[in-house]
Every structure is written in C-alpha cells, then in structure tokens.
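Suppose you are handed a protein chain with no further information: no name, no annotation, nothing but its sequence. What can you learn? This example shows the usual starting point.
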Amino acid sequence: MIKVKGFKFSGISAGLKKSNNKDLGLIFSEKKCIAHAIFTQNKVVAAPITIGRKIIKKKSIQSIVVNSGSANACTGEEGIVATNKVLDYIASLTNMKSDNFFPSSTGIIGSQLDYKAINKNIPKLIKSLSDKGYKDFAEAITTTDKFLKISHKRIKIGGNFYNFLGIAKGAGMIHPNMATMLCFFLTDLKFEPQIFKTIINEATKKSFNSISVDGDMSTNDTVIGLSNGMGGDATIKKSHKSLPTVSKAINEIFYELASLIVKDAEGGSKFCRINVSGTKSEKSANIIARKVANSLLFKTALFGSDPNWGRIIAAIGSVNIKYINQHKIDISIGKHFLVKNGIGCKKTKIINQLMKKKDIIININLNSGKHSSYMLTNDIGVKYVKFNSYYTT
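A reasonable first move is to predict its three-dimensional structure. Written in structure tokens, the prediction is:
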C-alpha cells in the first residue's frame, strides 16, 4: 500500500466530463508544505496558471485542487473568476485560506470552467479524502490517458522510512518545455527549500522537459512538488549524506512518469529514446535530440518500422550548429550501426527486427566533443491522426 504521511487524496465526478468519469481531484496535507512549481513556457496560459504563479510565491500551499474536462484556458476574466470561486469555496469549507490551495485544470482549450458544478461537489470531494485515495485522484486528472501514471519509492534515512509519490497525466500535445501534462510530486521528507527547488528543477529537466509526442506545447503544463516533512526528523540539506540517494530517487520517479506519458502517446505504438553524444555542449546535443524527436519523417518511419537513417542524418544536419561534420557522424540502433563516419552500413535482419520492437534506442554520436543529451519520443501513425482529427467533436 502506498502512503505518504500526512497526505490524503480524493477523486470524484462533478459532471464536467460527458462520460461522467471522475473529473475533480484533491490532495490535502495536514500541514503546510515546502512547495516548488514549474509551469509551461507557452505565452498563452490558462487561468489556473496565472493564479498558481501568484499563490506559489506566498509559500502557503497545503493542498492541490485539480479538474479535468476543461482546461480553463483562453477564457478571459471569467476563467480567472471561476478558479477563484472554487478556491474561495473550498477554503471556506475547510477553515483555510484560498491561497492554501493550488489550482490546476486540464481539458479542452476555450471551454469555460463550470465552477458551480465543481462547488456543488466540493463537500463530497472533501468527505471522500483518504490516505488510500491516490488512485481516485490519479483517475480524476486524466483526459485522453489510457492508463494511470503513478510512481512511488520508499527510502530509509536514520530510523525512519520516507515516502516519495509522483502522480502525472498526459498523452498528447506533448512537447518541451513542458508538455500537455500535469505532475504532482509529494513527500513526507523535509527539505531545505532551496535544495527542494534545485532537485525538482533538475528532475524536470531530465524528464518532462526531455519528451516530445507531437511537438505541440500546452497552455496548462505544471509540475509541482510538495514536502510536508511529517515522515520524521530528517531534513535534507546540501550537506546531508542522503542527498544523493534522495535526488536519485526523485529523478527516477520523474523519468518513469515522463516515460509513461510517451508510452501513452495518443495513437502511438513505439517508445523511442534518442541519445546524442560527442557534442561540444549539452545544449547542442539537446537541440539535435529534439530536432530528430520532432521530425515527422522520422516518427512515421518509426511507425512503419523502417530503419530509414537518411531521415535522421538529414534532421541532424538541418540544425544551426556549425561544427557538425557529416564525415564523423555515427548512428546506431542499440549496438548495431546504421551509419559509420557518415556512410550507411549494410542493413541486417537484426536491425529490421530491432525496428519492430515497441521500445527502441537510437544512438547518435557526432564524435566532436564530450557532451550528451537525450529525448524520449514516439511514433506518429494512423491512430494519432484519426484521434486528433475529431478530438472536440
């Protein structure tokens, strides 16, 4: 059983989805939390992002309220009012302040948030809170997700066990920075605020900012971490001997959740990690990895299990990095070379077999430096086109 001391969860239906599936979720901490959030870099943002950016600065967050079924984006002042109505009402019922609650929304852009329907169901949402209700919450935040995305780890520090729980959603409109995704990370381990911020930033960089399903960036993306410190006396500071272990655990949770988002890609059938090495900077490695990950020609080749390395090397050469030397480029699938020193290798049965697998690793080496980066991506095929061609209808 997954438990994070001091945290309770609930997820119910408020009638925001036509399916009547769960669409309203709540995470409640018994104590105020150390909190850090990272938001979409899209210039068009939803109402809860506008409000959440202000709330996070007040350092007063104790709970998170999330709705699916409506992104509450591009809804003008009416959308701001709607979110505030929800926060004010849930605060009044819990004898708390509205800025103790952090808002998130996900769904179709442009639809006004039915705050009356939400507020009608908030008493039920509060009553349903349970330390075992994390799956109900995870279900309530989904949109086109085919499965729930939950990752948990437990670490012993001193004489106590501390818990780390990540719950995410996302399947389409995925592109850094970040993606159409929400991630809620919770721990009962206490942190020095700056250390917590640093770890969350680094884990996000290596996970949610390293994935791309379709190259489209959302208006609602949020990663937020909460630490209530109720698991024991330990406090993670820069000098704490368990810092590397804790950081590793959080990074692993974030990477697993990001991988699950890519594997749940709308209409996707392949999961692909693109490793780029031998560059003069991490930045240039990242640029190349993203270029290949977002190439429709490459992604359709993945769908067709076609080892068409020409599409990969063409994408590499199209970026604005002057030191790229085509005669040094190596490309391989796993350990099997497609390209050596810029020249194609003979295709083999093993390569064809590897391309048919559900999980594929593409390695690109520029042989021009010591830096590296990676991206996680998927194929694009018929199902993706069909699904997204009538999403709002």
